[in-house]
């Protein structure tokens, strides 16, 4: 884009301001149902406004918007497929009895006082091994949510512990695509990047674990009656068996062997389906609304488990809500929202408005060390809000600040760390971001509900800024 056609910051802020106002209205009116369509329409209106202003004032060609939106959507194609498979996996793991078995044994093993801190640690270990917060939340996270509910914890606290642990691994695992992306875009060696992140990540996760430890002692209030109610409800509805745990074990082995996520999740779904046929034939017939067991009724019930909603009566109301599933169809609102968010991000990028607005906001901040890191952190968060995707946020943040860090004599690893401390961990806190939409859909807990309790995600940006203020382990390149 020619310099004389660069959008004015005052014009650039209009689509963002309109989007914020629309989303505020939508959320206040529709509440938790805002993601069922109203938020998507808000994103499309803001997209149309951005394109109209750019075409009318700055003569931007429509083909530029088409190309940018197409590229954005193309970049999320694999994520959309993973989302669909996660929907099928969640349904099959529940109906087959895998998740009920994990809950059944888990509520008897994990003491309520240590549940939150244990959940965070378990998810951290799994996510470091897998490199994926999505896989961690979709598998062990769902089981932990059930255990936490049985032990009397609210959805927000449970989801906060799960997500905090999951994004710890997503941030520092060498298998994580965001970790590799942040290092490569900023021209930093991968393990140099990981090692440097430890200076902010270890203190942050330590504080997070202390908080969950203290809160666990204060809130853990399940009684033996509650545990008995859950275990009896599960055992009366599902055939609980240790053999069902073979599926999580094999899934963990596939992850250990670094089998691609899409293949691992699909294979795990098929294995769970086989287990459902073996251990839960009566339940499949019930889902298929058939009175007699036959090959047709079992096939119908299994297919409905994969793609549709299932409702099972356990005799315990709160347990009924927990074991209900939505299958692939339950992910369609999320996919719709992702596509609309990609349209808005593509339009803002193609018009040049995103770069213009952020450049105007951060230009005066980058003159000092603290200001530079603060600007990078704030930019990563704003990118997550504006583009709706953490990958785009990481790429644009690192690209925009790379020359500034070099000009000021700072090592590239400071940029890569600041990008991860903002774009990676805050993506899940934004309802219309792909990560926020996905985790809210998988856990069945709205982003606004779990946001205040994701301490690792909330503290990471602050820790990065604090260390910049102290100047700890931040060196300038001598020339």
Task: Give a written overview of the molecule.
- The protein is an all-alpha fold and 479 residues long.
- The protein contains 24 helices and no strands.
- It has a domain at 78-330.
- It has helices at 9-30, 38-57, 62-75, 77-95, 98-109, 115-130, 133-150, 155-172, 177-185, 190-219, 224-237, 246-256, 261-279, 281-287, 295-307, 317-323, 332-351, 353-362, 369-387, 390-407, 412-426, 434-443, 447-450, 455-470.
- Helix 4 packs parallel to helix 13, helix 7 packs parallel to helix 22 and helix 14 crosses helix 15.
- It is globular, with a radius of gyration of 23 Å.
Biggest pleated sheet: none
- N-to-C SSE string, H for helix and E for strand: HHHHHHHHHHHHHHHHHHHHHHHH
Total beta strands: 0
Strand content: under 5%
Low-pLDDT residue spans:
none
Question: If you average the pLDDT, what whole number results?
Answer: 84
Q: What percentage of residues falls in helices of 4 or more residues? A: over 70%
Rounded to the nearest angstrom, the distance between the terminal CA atoms is: 34 Å
What does the overall shape look like? Answer: globular
Q: Class by helix and strand content?
A: mainly alpha
Rg from alpha-carbon coordinates = 23 Å
Number of helices: 24
Question: What is the strand and helix layout of this fold?
Answer:
Blueprint: H1 9-30, H2 38-57, H3 62-75, H4 77-95, H5 98-109, H6 115-130, H7 133-150, H8 155-172, H9 177-185, H10 190-219, H11 224-237, H12 246-256, H13 261-279, H14 281-287, H15 295-307, H16 317-323, H17 332-351, H18 353-362, H19 369-387, H20 390-407, H21 412-426, H22 434-443, H23 447-450, H24 455-470
Helix pairs in contact: 1-2, 1-18, 2-17, 3-17, 4-7, 4-13, 4-15, 5-7, 5-11, 6-7, 6-8, 6-10, 7-8, 7-22, 8-10, 8-21, 9-20, 9-21, 10-21, 10-24, 12-13, 14-15, 17-22, 19-20, 19-21, 19-24, 20-21, 21-24
């Amino acid at each position: 884009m020619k310099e004389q056609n660069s959008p004015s910051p005052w014009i650039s802020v209009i689509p963002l301001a309109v989007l914020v106002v629309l989303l505020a209205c939508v959320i206040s009116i529709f509440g938790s149902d805002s993601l069922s369509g109203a938020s998507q329409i808000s994103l499309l209106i803001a997209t149309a406004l951005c394109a109209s202003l750019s075409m009318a004032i700055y003569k931007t060609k429509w083909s530029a918007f088409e190309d940018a939106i197409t590229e954005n959507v193309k970049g999320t194609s694999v994520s959309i497929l993973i989302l669909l498979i996660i929907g099928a996996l969640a349904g099959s793991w529940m109906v087959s009895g895998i998740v009920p078995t994990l809950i059944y044994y888990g509520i008897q093993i994990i003491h309520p006082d240590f549940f939150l801190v244990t959940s965070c640690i378990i998810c951290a270990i799994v996510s470091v091994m897998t490199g994926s917060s999505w896989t961690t939340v979709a598998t062990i996270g769902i089981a932990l949510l059930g255990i936490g509910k049985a032990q009397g914890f609210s959805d927000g606290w449970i989801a906060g512990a799960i997500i905090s642990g999951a994004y710890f691994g997503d941030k520092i695992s060498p298998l994580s695509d965001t970790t590799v992306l942040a290092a490569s875009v900023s021209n930093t060696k991968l393990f140099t990047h990981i090692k440097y992140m430890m200076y902010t990540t270890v203190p942050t996760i330590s504080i997070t674990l202390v908080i969950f430890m203290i809160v666990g002692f204060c809130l853990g209030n399940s009684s033996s009656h509650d545990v008995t109610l859950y275990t009896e409800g599960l055992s009366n509805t599902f055939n609980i068996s240790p053999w069902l745990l073979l599926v999580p074990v094999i899934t963990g082995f596939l992850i250990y062997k670094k089998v691609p996520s899409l293949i691992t999740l699909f294979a795990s779904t098929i294995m769970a389906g086989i287990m459902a046929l073996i251990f839960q034939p009566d339940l499949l017939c019930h889902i298929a609304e058939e009175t007699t067991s036959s090959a047709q009724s079992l096939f119908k019930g299994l297919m409905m488990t994969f793609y549709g909603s299932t409702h099972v009566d356990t005799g315990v109301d709160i347990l009924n809500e927990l074991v209900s599933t939505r299958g692939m169809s339950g992910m369609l609102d999320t996919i719709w929202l992702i596509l609309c968010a990609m349209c808005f991000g593509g339009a803002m990028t193609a018009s040049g408005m995103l770069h213009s607005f952020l450049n105007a906001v951060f230009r005066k901040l980058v003159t000092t060390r603290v200001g530079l890191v603060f600007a990078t952190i704030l930019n990563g968060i704003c990118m997550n809000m504006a583009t709706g995707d953490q990958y785009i946020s990481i790429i644009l943040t690192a690209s925009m600040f790379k020359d500034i860090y070099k000009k000021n004599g700072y090592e590239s690893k400071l940029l890569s760390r600041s990008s991860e401390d903002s774009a990676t961990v805050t993506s899940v806190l934004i309802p219309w971001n792909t990560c926020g939409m996905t985790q809210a859909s998988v856990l069945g807990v709205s982003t606004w509900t779990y946001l205040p309790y994701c301490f690792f995600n909330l503290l990471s940006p602050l820790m990065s800024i604090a260390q910049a203020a102290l100047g700890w382990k931040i060196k300038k390149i001598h020339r």
